[in-house]
C-alpha cells in the first residue's frame, strides 16, 4: 500500500466524527459530518461516516440513500477505493449494517481486482463472498489470492489455497451452480499437485480432513483412498477426534463391519469408554449378524464379539456404567430374531443387574427405559417389577437414596400393566407427591439457581393427575397446583415449567402460560427449539385475551421475540463462517453453512410467519414485513424441523401414550401439514399468490382440527378464485357452530379455539370483500353457546380422594384463579365476536 497524504488528511479532518461514534453518540457524529460536508462536499470519508451515523440512529432509508451516492462516486473514480483507504473500510461497515451484502461484495471485489497485489484486500473480498454464500466467486478469488501471495514475504498462500479447495467442496454441494459436477475432481487434482511441493502445514489436521472429505464424495474407490490417506496419518488422526470420526464414518459407508467391530472392542478393552465405540460396536455386530444369517461367514466373529463384550462387562468393566450399558445396547440393537440367537442372559436379568448396581445414578432411568420397553408381559417383566418395587419403599436419607427411589418410581410407572383406572392414577399421584415432599430435604441447602433433585417426583405426580381423567379439568387444576408449588422450590425447573405451560393453555389461562414461557429464559437457538411452546396456534390463543389489553400486547411481544433467533442467525452465522475460514477450521465450515440453511428453512420460522400473518398488523410497514415473511416461507420446499419435543418429559406408562398427546389440541403437534394449511390461509388474507399449489411431503391431517381444515378449504377456494367461495364460507361458519355444539371436551381452550378459528374465517372473508351475511346467524348462535359455557365454568372435583388432596395443598385458590381466567377467556372471545 502506497503512502496517501490525501487519505491521511481526511482521517485527521474526520477525527471528531470517529470520537463521537466510538463514544456511542451518533447524533453528535451526524452534526460533525454535516459541518464538514457543508465546507467540503467532496469529502467522501465524511459522507461514509455520515451514513454510518444514520444507520445507528435508525434512519436506514436516509443511510441507504447516502451510500448510493458514494457507490456512484466510487464507480466513476476507482482510486477512491484504494485498498488502504478508510473510505473503503467505513463504506463496507455501512453496507453490512444495512444488509446490503451483495453491494459490499461487488465493491470489495472491484477494489481487489484493481489492486491484485493487495493480499489483505483480496482476503476481505473473499470473506465477504463467503459470508453471502457466493462460493464460485469465492473459489476464483481465493485461488487468485493464493497465486498472488506465492513467494510474498510473510504471506499465507497455503491457507488461501485451502480456502479455494473448501470453496470447491461447497460449489459441489450446490446443484444449482454450473460447475458443481467438475468441482471435486478439479479440487482433487489441485490438492495432489499442491502436496507435491507443499507438505502438510500448521493446520495439517484440518487440511487432511478437507482433502479426505473431498475424496470421500467421489464414490467408493475414492472413499477407500480417503481411508488409506487417514491410515497413513495415524499420529495426526489419533490427536484429532474429528479425523477419527470421519474415518469411522467412511468405514461404515464402505461396510467394513469386521474392522469396525474389532477396533471398537480393542478400544473398550484398553479402557476407553467413549460412547461412540459402543454405538459402532452395536451397529457392527447387528450387521455381522445379518451377514452370518444369510451366508454363515461371520458367525464366529459375532460369537467372539459377544463373548469379549460379556467378559469385559463381567470382569474389569463390571463397575463401569458405560461397559455395562454397552451390553444392554447390544441386545437392543439386534432384531427379535437376532436376540433369540444370543448366548447372553435374557434381557430382564441384564436390566435387573444394571439397576441393582447403578440405580443411585441420576440417569439410571434414562439408561434403562429403552431396554425395558422391549420386555413383554411374562416372568421376565415381573422379575423387573419385583426388584424395582423393593427400592420404591426405601427411606430417603441421602442423595443416593433419592435417586434409587426416583429411578424405581419412574421405571415402575413405565412398565406398569395396562390400566386406565382413574382412581389408581390419583392414588399414585398422591404417593409420588408425598415422596416429593419427603425428598425436598435433600436439596434444602441448594441455591435457587439449582434445580431440586426431587423435581421428577413432582412431574410424576402431575402427570399421573393428567392421566387420571382426560375428561375432567379438575385433575389438570390439581396438576397445575402441584407444579406451581414445585416451582417455588425449584424456579429453574424447566421441565416443570414446560408441562405447566401446556396445562395452562388447555385451561384457557393464556396470559399465565405466556408468563411462564418468559420465565424459561430461552435464549439464542433455544428460541428455535422451544418457541413452539408459545408460537403453536398463537394466532388462535391470542383471541382468548381481551382485545387492546396489556395482556394482548405482552403476548404479541413475547411471540415476536421468538424471531430474534432468525435475525441473529442472519447476522451471526456469516460471521461464524468467516471466522472458520480465517482460522482454517475446515471441519466446521460446512456444519455452520448447513446449520444456517436449516435456520433459513426452519419449520418453526414458517409456523411463526403463518401465525403472525393471521394477527392484525400494526401498520403498513408491519403488514409488508409479514407479507415478505409469508412469501419467504412459501418458497421453502424442504423445511427443517429443529423443535425440541423431548423437553416435555414423558413419565406415563408405555401403554398410555405420551403426555404430549394428552396435553395437545390434536393427536399430532403442528407440523408440515398444519404449516401448509395456515400458510394458505395467510396467503389468502394478504392476497399472495402461491407459487406451489401442492402441499409439501410429510405431515398429516391429524395436525389440524376440524375447524382448521374447513378454514384451509375456504382459503384454497379464495386463492383458486373458485366460483363457490360464498357457499364454502357459509359451510365453514355452520361447520364451526356444529363443532362447538358437539365437542365433548371440558377444557375451555378446546371450545374457545373453535370460536377463534371462526373469527379468523370471518376476518378472512371480510378482508377479501366476500359477503359476510352467511356468518351472522352461526356467529350469533355461537355467542349464545359460549355465554352458557362461560356461566357454567366449574373445575371442581367429583373425586373424594382428589378433593382431599386439593384441600391439603391449597388447591382451592388455584382453582378459583384458573376459573376466573377461563371466564376471562370466554369474555375475550365473546367481545371479539360481538365486533363481527
Automatic annotation (TrEMBL):
Pfam families: NatB_MDM20. Signal peptide: none annotated. Residues 793-816 are annotated as: Disordered. Residues 796-805 have a biased composition (Low complexity). InterPro entries: NAA25_NatB_aux_su (IPR019183), TPR-like_helical_dom_sf (IPR011990). GO terms for cellular component: NatB complex. It comes from the Eukaryota. Belongs to the MDM20/NAA25 family. This is TPR-like protein. It comes from Acaromyces ingoldii.
Amino acid at each position: 500500500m502506497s503512502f496517501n497524504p490525501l487519505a491521511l488528511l481526511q482521517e485527521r479532518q474526520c477525527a471528531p466524527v470517529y470520537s463521537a461514534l466510538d463514544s456511542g453518540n451518533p447524533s453528535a457524529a451526524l452534526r460533525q459530518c454535516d459541518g464538514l460536508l457543508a465546507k467540503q462536499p467532496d469529502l467522501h470519508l465524511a459522507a461514509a461516516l455520515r451514513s454510518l451515523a444514520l444507520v445507528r440512529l435508525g434512519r436506514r432509508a436516509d443511510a441507504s440513500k447516502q451510500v448510493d451516492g458514494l457507490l456512484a462516486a466510487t464507480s466513476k473514480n476507482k482510486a477512491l477505493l484504494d485498498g488502504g483507504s478508510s473510505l473503503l473500510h467505513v463504506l463496507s461497515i455501512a453496507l453490512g449494517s444495512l444488509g446490503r451484502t451483495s453491494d459490499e461484495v461487488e465493491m470489495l471485489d472491484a477494489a481487489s481486482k484493481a489492486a491484485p497485489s493487495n493480499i489483505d484486500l483480496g482476503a476481505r473480498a473473499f470473506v465477504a463472498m463467503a459470508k453471502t454464500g457466493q462460493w464460485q466467486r469465492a473459489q476464483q478469488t481465493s485461488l487468485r489470492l493464493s497465486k498472488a501471495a506465492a513467494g510474498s514475504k510473510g504471506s499465507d498462500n497455503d491457507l488461501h489455497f485451502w480456502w479455494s479447495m473448501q470453496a470447491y467442496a461447497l460449489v459441489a454441494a450446490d446443484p444449482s451452480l454450473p460447475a458443481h459436477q467438475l468441482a471435486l475432481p478439479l479440487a482433487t487434482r489441485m490438492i495432489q499437485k499442491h502436496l507435491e511441493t507443499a507438505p502438510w502445514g500448521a493446520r495439517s489436521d484440518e487440511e487432511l480432513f478437507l482433502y479426505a472429505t473431498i475424496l470421500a464424495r467421489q464414490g467408493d474407490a475414492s472413499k477407500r483412498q480417503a481411508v488409506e490417506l487417514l491410515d497413513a496419518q495415524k499420529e495426526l488422526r489419533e490427536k484429532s477426534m474429528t479425523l477419527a470420526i470421519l474415518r469411522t464414518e467412511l468405514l461404515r459407508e464402505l461396510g467394513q463391519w469386521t474392522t469396525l467391530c474389532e477396533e471398537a472392542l480393542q478400544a473398550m478393552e484398553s479402557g476407553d469408554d467413549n460412547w461412540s465405540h459402543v454405538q459402532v460396536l452395536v451397529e457392527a455386530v447387528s450387521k455381522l449378524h445379518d451377514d452370518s444369517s444369510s451366508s454363515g461367514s461371520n458367525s464366529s466373529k459375532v460369537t467372539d464379539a459377544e463373548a469379549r463384550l460379556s467378559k469385559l462387562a463381567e470382569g474389569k468393566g463390571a463397575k463401569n456404567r458405560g461397559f455395562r450399558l454397552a451390553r444392554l445396547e447390544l441386545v437392543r440393537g439386534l432384531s427379535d430374531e437376532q436376540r433369540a440367537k444370543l448366548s447372553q442372559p435374557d434381557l430382564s436379568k441384564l436390566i435387573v443387574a444394571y439397576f441393582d448396581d447403578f440405580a443411585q445414578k441420576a440417569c439410571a432411568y434414562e439408561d434403562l427405559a429403552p431396554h425395558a420397553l422391549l420386555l413383554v408381559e411374562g416372568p421376565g417383566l415381573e422379575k423387573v417389577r419385583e426388584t424395582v418395587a423393593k427400592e420404591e419403599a426405601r427411606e430417603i436419607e441421602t442423595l443416593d437414596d433419592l435417586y434409587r427411589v426416583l429411578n424405581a418410581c419412574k421405571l415402575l410407572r413405565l412398565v406398569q400393566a395396562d390400566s386406565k383406572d382413574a382412581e389408581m392414577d390419583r392414588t399414585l399421584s398422591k404417593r409420588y407427591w408425598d415422596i416429593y415432599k419427603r425428598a425436598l430435604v435433600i436439596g434444602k441447602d441448594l441455591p435457587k439457581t439449582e434445580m431440586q433433585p426431587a423435581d421428577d417426583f413432582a412431574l410424576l405426580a402431575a402427570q399421573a393427575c393428567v392421566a387420571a381423567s382426560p375428561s375432567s379439568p379438575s385433575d389438570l387444576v390439581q396438576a397445575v397446583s402441584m407444579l406451581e408449588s414445585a416451582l417455588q422450590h425449584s424456579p429453574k425447573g424447566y421441565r416443570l415449567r414446560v408441562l405447566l405451560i401446556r396445562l395452562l393453555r388447555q385451561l384457557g389461562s393464556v396470559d399465565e402460560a405466556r408468563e411462564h414461557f418468559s420465565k424459561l429464559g430461552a435464549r439464542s437457538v433455544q428460541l428455535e427449539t422451544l418457541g413452539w411452546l408459545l408460537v403453536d396456534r398463537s394466532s388462535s390463543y391470542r383471541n382468548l385475551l381481551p382485545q387492546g389489553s396489556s395482556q394482548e400486547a405482552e403476548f404479541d411481544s413475547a411471540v415476536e421475540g421468538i424471531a430474534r433467533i432468525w435475525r441473529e442467525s442472519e447476522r451471526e452465522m456469516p460471521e461464524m463462517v468467516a471466522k472458520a475460514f480465517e482460522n482454517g477450521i475446515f471441519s466446521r465450515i460446512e456444519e455452520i453453512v448447513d446449520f444456517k440453511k436449516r435456520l433459513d428453512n426452519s419449520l418453526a420460522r414458517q409456523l411463526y410467519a403463518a401465525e403472525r400473518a393471521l394477527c392484525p398488523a400494526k401498520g403498513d410497514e408491519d403488514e409488508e414485513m409479514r407479507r415478505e415473511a409469508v412469501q419467504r416461507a412459501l418458497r421453502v420446499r424442504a423445511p427443517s424441523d429443529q423443535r425440541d419435543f423431548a423437553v416435555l418429559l414423558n413419565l406415563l406408562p408405555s401403554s398410555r401414550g405420551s403426555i404430549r398427546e394428552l396435553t395437545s389440541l390434536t393427536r399430532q403437534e403442528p407440523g408440515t401439514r398444519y404449516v401448509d394449511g395456515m400458510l394458505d390461509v395467510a396467503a389468502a388474507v394478504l392476497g399472495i399468490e402461491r407459487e406451489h399449489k401442492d402441499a409439501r411431503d410429510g405431515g398429516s391431517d391429524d395436525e389440524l382440527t376440524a375447524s382448521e381444515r374447513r378454514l384451509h378449504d375456504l382459503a384454497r377456494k379464495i386463492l383458486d378464485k373458485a366460483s363457490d367461495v360464498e357457499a364454502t364460507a357459509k359451510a365453514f361458519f355452520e361447520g364451526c357452530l356444529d363443532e362447538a355444539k358437539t365437542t365433548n371436551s371440558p377444557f375451555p381452550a378446546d371450545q374457545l379455539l373453535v370460536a377463534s378459528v371462526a373469527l379468523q374465517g370471518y376476518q378472512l372473508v371480510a378482508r377479501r370483500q366476500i359477503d359476510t351475511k352467511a356468518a351472522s346467524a352461526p356467529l350469533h348462535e355461537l355467542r349464545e353457546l359460549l355465554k352458557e359455557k362461560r356461566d357454567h365454568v366449574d373445575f371442581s372435583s367429583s373425586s373424594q380422594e382428589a378433593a382431599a388432596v386439593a384441600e391439603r395443598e391449597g388447591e382451592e385458590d388455584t382453582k378459583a384463579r384458573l376459573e376466573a381466567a377461563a371466564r376471562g377467556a370466554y369474555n375475550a372471545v365473546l367481545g371479539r365476536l360481538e365486533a363481527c
